[in-house]
Amino acid sequence: MSTPTAIVVLGPSGLATARVLEGALPHASIHGLKGRVTECDVTFEKTMSHLAELFEAGTPIVGLCASGILIRALGSLLADKQEEPPVIAVAEDGSAVVPLLGGHHGANALAREVADALGVLPAITTGGDVRFGVALDAPPQGWVLANPEHAKDVMASLLAGAHARIIGDAPWVEQSRLPMAKDGEIELVVTHNIEQGSPSKLIYHPKRLALGVGCERGCEPGELIELVVKTLAEHNLVPGAIAIVGSLDLKADETAMHALADHVGAPARFFSVDELNAEAPRLKNPSEIVLREVGCPGVAEGAALAS
Asked: Which pLDDT score, from 0 to 100, does residue 81 have?
């Protein structure tokens, strides 16, 4: 699930632009300065402290204000660029869009969304994006980079003249301006399997695996997570490739299910007995015991197939 974006407005002149962005960005809300901005979702009194609170909570920020305000509010909080949320400055009239922080943690992509909504070009300055039209350490939604610690070395090599080669299928890379060669020194590997990366090898996991799970009432979250991680490892599969965690709707209130979904970074979806019974003809391991207990012959396998 995406983290809701805070559109921060400091005066009435920025409200019209904020409304446009609220309609264009999923799960966005308008934060308005008390006494100056009306008809907003969230009201705040102190600009600097509110911006700091949003940043520390990991909330993407679109500030309709001068860049300097955002820089002064957040400068002392900067530590790990891999962890900082996106922060974007937007002119009140929508004429300029500048990603300030978190460029390779979603800010460049968010800036493009904002700019598209406003009909302008974003002022993106990160080297890889400018030269190659792609950020290798910030793959698109539905993809996970397994070894982000090596992305800087890979991008430095490419900027210095190295060539890349794709092992697998990655259309978002193929559509970029990366220098490609069949014998490229830089490997961009697409796989669901466990594989070791390096300063010349980035490992990408497309989220395309469906995980079906069942559990007893009150199952310990750690026990379920351990079982899933162990089972995946036995089949040489990585948790990062899981796109959905599925189960029976009777399990929708199980803490362990939601803890597992959070652990693998995938949404949980719960199916009705009828939906799981529709998958019964495809089950490899139907169970009469499960059928008597919950009304369908397979929860984990059925949920994986239904997903």
From this structure: 62
Q: Given the DSSP bridges, would you call strands 242-248 and 87-90 parallel, antiparallel or unpaired?
A: unpaired
Q: What is the pTM assigned to this prediction?
A: 0.67
Alpha-carbon dihedral angle through residues 286, 287, 291, 292, given to the nearest 10 degrees? 160
Element at 55 (helix H, strand E): helix 47-56
Between helix 67-74 and helix 47-56 the angle, nearest 10°, is: 60
φ, ψ of residue 38 to 5 degrees: the values are -110, 170
Distance (Å, whole) CA 124 – CA 101:
11
User: Residue 65 phi/psi, 5° resolution?
Assistant: -165, 180
Beta bridge partners of 7: 30, 62
Of residues 104 and 259, the one with the higher pLDDT is 259
Annotate 254-289 with DSSP letters as a single string.
-HHHHHHHHHHT--EEEE-HHHHHTTGGG-SS--HH
Average pLDDT of the residues in 84-109: 87
Taking the alpha carbons at both ends of the chain, their separation in whole angstroms is 17
Sequence letter at residue 213 = V
| Residue appearing with tokens 């002392």 | 76
Neighbouring CB atoms inside 10 A of 193's CB total: 12
- Residue pair 239/264 in contact by the 8 Å Cβ criterion: yes
Strand partners, 201: 187, 198
Please give the full DSSP string across 97-165, using - where no structure is assigned: EEEEE-IIIIIHHHHHHHHHHHTS------HHHHHHS--TTSPPTTEEES-GGGHHHHHHHHHTT--EE
